[in-house]
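User: I'm preparing a small set of examples for a lab meeting where we compare how different chains pack in three dimensions. I only have the primary sequence for this one, and I'd like the structure in token form so I can line it up with the others. Please keep the answer compact; I'll paste it straight into my notes.
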Amino acid sequence: MSLADQDSTKTFCLDSYYVSEDLGFILQEPLTELPPYYLPWMDIALHLPELVHSRELRSRVNRMPLLSSQYLQTHRELRLAHLALGATTMSYVWQEGEDNTVKVLPRNLAVPYWEVSQRLGLPPIFIHADAVLANWKKRDPERPFDMENLDLVVRLPGGDSLRGFFMVTLLVELAAIPALKSIPTVFRGVSCGHTEAVAQALQDISKSIHDMTEACKLMHVYVEPSVFYGVIRIYLSGWKDNPSMPNGLIYEGVQPEPLEFSGGSAAQSSLLHCLDELLGIKHEAKAGVFLSRMRDYMPPAHKQMIQDISRQPSLRNFVQEQCDEELNQVFQLCVTKLIEFRNYHINIVSRYITVPAARARQLRYEKNTKEELIRKAPTALEERGTGGSSIMSFLKTVRDETKQVFLPVNKN
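Assistant: Understood. Below is the structure token output for the 412-residue chain.
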């Protein structure tokens, strides 16, 4: 181990990346209001479903004053501004569906959104860090962090299913916190050759991944597939690799040429990136390129944490070198649990995207008014995720690449 590796191992701690032991990557105590100067933004952002439904959103935005971002002084103010402007941008672009998108985001929205994004180091589009990590509040501050007590700060069209989709994803992030807390323990154990400490930390990580899968199962309880596919999905879609907006979007007042950004994606969550780097899972070709690009859609400190994990001494090599049966087994268990999580994610995508897409194609040749949401759903992304990936082949590739880190079986 090099001196640089030793130094990075000693100094690796979650606080350095603005990751808390209580909430992980989740933003602590997100704001629900901005200073009064920004009331024109919030008056629109807090009423997006109604404004989209009445087809008034674009006209309201067009009349909005051009405000400076200079009075946003704290990180949480900037995060709420990014959330509000991002959700407003999605509503503005997609209000009339995929057949009547806009080519230009007006200056009074584009310029402040660009300024806020630059200050945060984030792209000017609605991302996982907005929709999930910074978009929650407790209905009762004294009650637990659960579905009954959680609500959204900013909503898009989709009603209860939208809330369910974002809040279940938030609970997956919450379930991963024990895994995040165990990562520094793993590195300390590897650094000093403490196999028992590493084994216990990996046991905790495997349990945490199992709990992530269990949290995912709530998706079937709180999210209706027809609403997700027919209503919600378009508002999470971006203007990169999207046939509805092949030339991207011009941010008026920022630059004259159109810009391309991917929509929201589970791949923008830092959780699985951290686990992949910890376990030594490598993603190649198209899947690797897409996942690498998604790191540019994360808060910079979270992206840095992933990169720093990748620079630590190899956990997999350490496990192999120790010839310790318990350590081997618990490493294999972590990989198994991660494969199970990815298999379950494939199951969810099948129910919420693949099956409705097939049904939508069938319904276009029928007059079935009972399934209007599915029949009239956007067609451009039928085989793609909102981030622009060919979703099912991508997920299966990532799952299969996870299997490659299983330790070789000792036949002696």
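A couple of notes for your slides: The chain has a mean pLDDT of 92. The first helix runs from residue 3 to 11.

User: Perfect, thanks.
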